Amino acid sequence: MNVKRIFGTVLTILGIIGLIYAGVGFVNHTIQSRELIVMGVIGVIFFVSGISLVRNTKDEA
């Protein structure tokens, strides 16, 4: 088990959840705009860092 790959997967999933939360709040107009912007930015940061961590980690047996 590669810890970096698992951590990258967790970060990617958290980023997707943050982006979905921001998108649903934007469509429903139920959440303040500042909270949507913060959740969107955090979601993008988690998503990009998770994808790059999974991509750059080499498989070692």
> Considering DSSP H and I runs of 4 or more, what fraction of the residues is helical?
over 70%
Elements, N to C (H/E): HH
Question: pLDDT average, as an integer?
Answer: 88
Strand content: under 5%
- What's the overall geometry? elongated
Largest sheet: none
Classify the oligomer: single chain
What structural class should be given to the helix and strand makeup? mainly alpha
Number of strands: 0
Tally of helical runs: 2
Low-pLDDT regions: none
Tally of distinct domains: 1
Rg estimate, integer Å: 14 Å
Distance between the termini: 9 Å
List keywords for this structure.
82% helix; 0% strand; membrane; 2 helices; single chain; mainly alpha
Describe the structure.
The structure is a single chain. By secondary structure, this protein is an all-alpha fold. The protein has one domain. It is built from two helices and no strands. 15% of the residues are buried.
